[in-house]
Amino acid sequence: MKLENLQEADFKFRQHGCCYETDSENKRSKIVEVLWRVFWGKRKRLQKKNLGFSFEMKATKTLIRKAEKGQKQGLPLHKTDKEKNMQGKISIHHGSGGGKSRELIENLFRTHFSNPVLDKMDDAGVLKLESKNIAFTTDSFVVKPIFFEGGDIGRLAISGTVNDLAVMGAKPCALTVSFIIEESFEMEKLRKIVVSMKETADEAGVIIAAGDTKVVEKGSADGIFITTSGIGIIPEGIKIGGAMAKPGDVVILSGSVGNHGASIITSRKDLGFKTFVKSDVAPLNNLIERMIEETPEIHVMRDATRGGLATVLNEIAIQSGVKIEVLEEKIPVKEEVKGVCGLLGLDPLYLANEGRIVVFVKEEESLKLLDKMRESKYGRGASVIGRVVDNTDEPVVILKTVGSGGRILDMLSGEPLPRIC
Length: 421
Hints:
With 421 residues, the protein is of the alpha+beta class. It has 3 domains: 3-72, no CATH class; 81-233, CATH 3.30.1330.10; 249-408, PurM-like C-terminal domain (Phosphoribosyl-aminoimidazole Synthetase, Chain A, domain 2). It has helices at 3-16, 27-48, 53-72, 81-84, 99-113, 153-166, 187-204, 259-267, 285-294, 308-320, 335-344, 363-373, and strands spanning 134-141, 147-148, 151-152, 171-182, 207-216, 224-233, 249-253, 300-303, 322-327, 357-362, 383-391, 396-400, 407-408.
């Protein structure tokens, strides 16, 4: 990367008061921003030592690699000048609707969520949609802890709503975000959450079209709660729903189960785990869009979140009025997840997932769909785990195990692990 390109990028950053957008959604510019702030300090030191230009550029390339590595690991970006004014903790005045609220919106939320719809700052975001079929969904997130291995409440909120739209065959286009923040919540934690939300929204290709923030007294909430709503456009001819499973359909699972639930468990300090399981939380709409392009005749698709795989299969069986059989040996579960479940007496089939989908499709379509899914990092572990046996007035899910005729796999009863998402 040439020095003049860095200078041009920095000019655009400062000109727009934005920490990582130059033109369109250039991922590279995120790296430039991180690099720029680090590079100038390094360059001045190199000049003081009278080192040559070639060594200086070598140092620059090293910094680029470090910045790229940081971006892949999801490390927070350096603060903008506006954000540097946002120090300390959230006060009750940040939710008053007055000057402090405006400061929070302008210096933090709008800095990261900026787009033509949101920037008008009207009471509602106005969208131009050219479709008769619109999907609309909403969800709230109260996960504890708010930061966990592989993600945080911000990535979870964006991914959860995007995925709810995508599994209906919709192309997500816009979200709204509502924050309820406890007084004294650390501003730096809020910044990290907002940056994570922006990065996840960029990955999914959606905008934040509107938002709201409320602050409650200390002790009235537990840190931060987030509610997201989203809309998406369903292309003509696409019809996917929980009531459409048919006898002969095979059941495809996109990857190993229980990762998110196990991640939340091991991230809770009071349980004393010294090793951590990485959550599978991710926006899956790009994967799903490619799947639908390959196989438009998908019957059912559902993300296996709260209640896990077992609960989702039961919901589909009830909606469609069918008997479903799944093979225990075909359901992938990571060893570390099995270890957590073994210690706590939990079943991985009931643990939450935030980056896994269950798909019902005709058997003759399944092989090419599997190949398409495995092209994505989010579908690399996809496999057929069962099939729809027949229609029935008594919907049921049967888990067939090696050496036995199988057992009924019930829907989750009770709440073994609260505040999982």
